[in-house]
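If you are new to this repository, start here. Below is one unmodified record pulled from the training split, so you can see the exact layout before writing a loader.
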Amino acid sequence: MTQRLRIIRAIFAFLFLAMFVTGMLGPVLAHAKEPKAPHVLVMTVDGIINPVKTKFISRAIDQAQRDSAAVLIIRLDTPGGLLGATRGIVTLLLESQVPVAVFVSPRGARAGSAGAFITVAANFAVMAPGSNIGAASPISSTGEDIDDTLASKVENDAAALIRSIAQTRGRNQDGLEQTVRTAASYSAQEALAENLVDFIADDLNDLITMLDGLIADTSSGSVVLETEGLGVRSFEKNILEHFLEFISDPNVSFLLLAVGGLGIVVEMFNPGLVAPAVVGVICLLLAFLALGNLPINWAGVVFVILASVLIVLEVVVAGFGILGVGAIVSLIVGGLLLFTQFGDTSPTMPPIAVSKWMVYGAGGATALALVYVVRQAHLSRMQGPEDKSFILIGSLGTVTGELNPKGIVLVGNETWTAVSGDDSVIAVGETVEVRSIDGLVLTVFRRNNQDIVDNS
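And here is the target side for that same chain:
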């Protein structure tokens, strides 16, 4: 059996290693087959701007440079994102040796807040008909205005950044500054008229045609674009980036944090279970990895973990529902506070929060589970201990605490209080037989004495 188990383990290890190597070498081999000829590299960036997006764009620029791409086109549709990640992307675009065009598309897309910074930082800022750009003024993570002093500090910093970008790219500084100062937004036609963007393109093919013959100022010098007749290649996120994007969803990160905290606390109160600890550690690590891509409020984290502690305490120490109520309240408060910012806020970050349906749903599910547990505990107390007299009478046990005449005996795997039936002293280690049970006290006889009584 052991040999068979080792073979199975070896097979699984080999399969895992083979999949790992294939996953690592597959993209490399596929990339090696593609000729390094001029082409147009196209990528799509949508959703919240975070460090994952920064890494994604950085990889795209590197590949465009390695593969001699004529231009990198970023199709953008975003409500905004983290200021740190936005600054990182702006730096990448300004320092790129490959011409970059940011295309706010498809129709109806937006370059809100952080998206405005990213769009105007590209060599060519392009919008699709029906798209819009702007609204980069500082707000709190709940969508409300922040106090005047803090707003002035954050606003001035963001305004200075977007003016600097506008100066570098030759765009309308005053118009772009208004997106920060007054949360101004512009339609595609208005942005073109105000010299915020370079032109409007109906679709990707139209954009590629319009780029042909234009001059781009890159970090390595001026480049004349020759895009006519070039092939188009797509640049996609890798598996890790897709996974990080998934767990960076506020609702997913909230669930990971709650489950992770619960798993760790369960293991602390029940050492040796192993499984809760493993699940808990993995979920917590994933939660903190996700929270690194989001504006986190640590008070919310504390409340969620406190809820996990109170849930376990309710089950272990039987808090008669009081601890359970505290757990539900802590879980709901933690979920609502998790992404609420009271201090310095990002001017490029749109309002984000855990869905109230998710928060209240988790609280409701916790309440139902605790009601069931408390009810079962109450019924167990009402029923009292299981009647074991018919099982114990006639059973043999070993004295673990001297009977003089009262002491402790071990019967089966249970320790009982016992008294000597003939009031004699029975030493530790002697064998006794159970004759009767009164509540939680056994009446026992030394095995030899009982034999004599039976014979008489």
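Two things worth knowing about this chain: The first strand starts at residue 40 and ends at 46. DSSP finds 16 helices and 16 strands in the chain.
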